[in-house]
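During the no-cost extension, the postdoctoral fellow (Dr. R.K.) reprocessed legacy sequence entries with the updated structure-token encoder. One reprocessed record is reproduced below for audit purposes.
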Amino acid sequence: MIYCVLFEDTPGRETLRQQHMAAHLEFLASRGQQVQGAGPLLENGEGQGGMWIVEAGSAEDVQELVQADPFWPTGLRKSVRILEWRQVFREGARV
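Re-encoded structure tokens follow.
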């Protein structure tokens, strides 16, 4: 199954983000095709959180992945939502 993972960051923790960014990106890269996409969510150019598109067997598997991320123990993440996603359009066409 495909999941959309929405992260909301704790305000005022930009220093933590920068300190752990290299380890976070290395972690994402090490997951191969499991993490199909990832990136920041911005408002007026300012980071507010992030989003991942993940392929996994269950929401519990995704939660384990989230908790393995080097960002997790830092307190950077204020909240996380794991939602099953069903893609119906890709590249302008229905799938």
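Strands lie at 2-9, 35-43, 46-55, 77-85, 89-90, 93-94. The radius of gyration is 14 Å. The remaining legacy entries will be reprocessed before the final report is submitted.
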